[in-house]
Input
Amino acid sequence: MAQANPTTGQTGAQHVTGEELMALFKSAGDKPIMIDFFATWCGPCKLAGPVIDKLSLEYADQAMLVKLDVDENNDTARQFGVMSIPTVVVMKKDGDQMKEIDRKIGFPGEAGYRQMLDKATGATAKA
Output
């Protein structure tokens, strides 16, 4: 089981609805938001889930990581052009709007997600 973030008590990525995601865009500030589009029945999504949870704790001060169930939020998935799952999209504020800065379809492993987060946060890749 993942350790809780000592500051927030959070134990993994927050599950959000489409409405909650739009609200996060307004409150994110300069933090990038990584969105994991998944479904409970998806095998590769089940592999990605624990990795996303782990990274949400490690990157808690630099980025927001959230999960969005495509079966429960069809319209939001369609709005983001999600055709296959898992799909992970990284958004970052550009002026007054959120802009997509990275996207991966399929499960690239922990290293692939770290690379996305490091690019979004300007961090040096961890060995």
Observations:
- The chain has one domain: 14-119.
- The chain has four helices and five strands.
